[in-house]
């Protein structure tokens, strides 16, 4: 896997830490995190990330608003939505806003690995 720098945007510190540990196990070298959408947008504009993990329910912005800010500026960076709100409507809204994947909370390391592998494979075909 070529991906080694990740950004996690989630207001829940426990989820950020679980995802951080999962990504470390999967070989990520740098993992940054943000507790809200505005901080996440700011971090994403300061340096390149190979992948961004994004919660939908943030204290300041909805995840789809964050996606709408990020995707025009970072069209080649996969953004994977990680949410407990796994409705069909949220899936459709996320994909329409530019999400590259959608993972339900609670997540497993195997699910995160699978979605990363799927995105690596899709990117290598483009």
UniProtKB/TrEMBL annotation:
Entry annotated with the keyword Kinase: no
Key words of the record: Phosphoprotein
Pfam families: Response_reg
SMART domains reported in the protein's UniProt record: REC
Claim: Phosphoprotein is one of the keywords in the record: yes
Source organism (scientific name): Alkalimonas collagenimarina
InterPro entries in the record: Bact_response_regulator, CheY-like_superfamily, Sig_transdc_resp-reg_receiver
4-aspartylphosphate found at: 55
PANTHER family named in the record: RESPONSE REGULATORY DOMAIN-CONTAINING PROTEIN, STRESS RESPONSE REGULATOR PROTEIN 1
Domain Response regulatory: 5-120
Protein name, as recorded: Response regulator
């Amino acid at each position: 896997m070529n991906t080694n720098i990740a950004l996690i945007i989630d207001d829940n510190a426990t989820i950020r830490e679980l995802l951080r540990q999962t990504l470390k196990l999967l070989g990520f070298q740098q993992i940054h995190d943000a507790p809200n959408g505005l901080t996440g947008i700011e971090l994403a504009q300061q340096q390149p990330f190979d992948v961004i993990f994004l919660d939908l329910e943030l204290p300041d912005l909805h995840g789809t608003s964050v996606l709408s800010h990020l995707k025009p500026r970072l069209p080649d960076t996969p953004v994977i939505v990680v949410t407990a709100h796994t409705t069909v409507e949220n899936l459709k809204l996320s994909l329409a806003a530019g999400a590259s994947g959608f993972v339900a909370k609670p997540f497993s390391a195997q699910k995160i690995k699978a979605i990363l592998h799927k995105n690596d494979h899709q990117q290598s075909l483009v």
